[in-house]
Task: structure prediction
Amino acid sequence: MTTKHTPVLIAGAGPVGLALAIELAYRDIHCIVIEQTDGSVDFPTTNLANTRTCEHLRRWGFADRMRFESGYPTDYPRNYLFVTRMDGFEIARFDHPANGAPESRSPYSPEGRLWISKPYFDPVLRQHASRLPQIEIRYLTEFKSFEQHADKVLATVADVNTGKEEIIEADYLVGCDGGRSNIRRALGIKYEGVFSQGMNVAVLFSSPLLNLINHGPAVQYQIINAQINGAIAAVDGKELWRLNVRNVLQEQIDSLNAPEKLRAALGPDIPFELLAVRPWTGHCVVAERYQQDRVFLAGDAAHLNWPAGGFGMNTGVGDAVDIGWKLAAVLQGWGGANLLNSYTAERKPIAMINVNEAAEMRANFDNQTPFSPNIGDDSEEGRALRVKAHAAIMRTRAKEFQHDSAGIELGYRYDNSPICVADGTPAPELDHGIYVPSTWPGARAPHAWLNDGRSTLDLFGKSFVLLNFTGTNTITITNAAKGANVPLEVVSLDEAKLREIYERDLVLVRPDGHVAWRGDSVPENVSEIIDKVRGAM
Result:
């Protein structure tokens, strides 16, 4: 067996593993990505890249490419509809612009939500990663085992076709190997939470239904009738669709009549071709910890949730960005001894919020939407039931479908982070439907347009950035950073509107775009602040 060295070894080339590889390459850190499959997508899942994920894509340089290669016609709206059947009555709708429309961008970001299915999202990540010289991706390679040492991790991998084994020596290992993560199991790390909250069945089918319905195009049609509890999601905005049948009893899985369920969702006269059927189970769990010495977990290896709200993959990308900049800092020599230990402290609480939010969204729909057998009738009773259902939907689903969960996507923050400097002020209110911009330490630094047409977010990424709104002399801060080899750029901004948004005269932003420290003057303990934000305290 041969031995090769890499700074970071990543197990799993799904969206999270590829995102981590791209984040590391963005910081000029080399890595090897191991993937047991050939990388092709055998079943379309993942429908949503949220606004925060698209901000990362923007920083990496291909957000627009992802937007225009999403597989959808550029004018296909990102609407969400609630209907009795595809050929039945409309109950409620939430209209949103198409992926490519300028108005699709969030008012709180230079980017916006992107509806995109896995067969389109993954290949763009893969193609971008394959062009970066710092990344080596090995498909059809099995990750077999690993052992940790004080200064390295030794992993055994094998060629799937030949069985030939190889040892890879890495400074760090990150398990992005999914919900059945062998790396998590080898570390003895358990999930905490509730497993198997109901069986579901995904049915992939093709149909020209857009030509046969009166509701107009949408990315998702929630079906409300007595025969089926489910939703139809657009895969390509043309003729490829995925029906998700919720709350199927375990004993009904093998005998489930997929064509019958499709007929209940579509109506009697809409033709379809059944392509594939796949059962899946919803969970509400988070790993008890995300790291052990030189080995880390990210994505589904660290948390599993219901797909409601689209939190799964997006939370995983957030994991990748957080551990990515921290690994780069340590490998480049300026990250402190405790920087990597902040990974679990910062990311686990976010996963717990998102997992619980997804579970609440799922429960709201199942518990509060009336499913009377007569809801689809063209009668006084049917109309009354639809009015009642409309009210329940607007009460329980608006933050997910109307407000795009802006508060939870952009307003999350790293409470009690060991590498953010608290200033004694109360945290801003966390409303999962409403985003309140803030520079509270640990929060995402707010977006605002600069006079030159850039976003404030375009200033962040490669280093720490100290925003100076009053021309204060910051030489002691820059000297402290230089003494610790911390990359720091000072950006002076003489724009009154930005000072109001950023709340303080001086705001220090981390490489991942989160606020590390803020104040109205240069403090005396600048060296302590620099040591804290780089994980050396």
In short: Residues 37 and 310 are 24 Å apart (CA to CA).
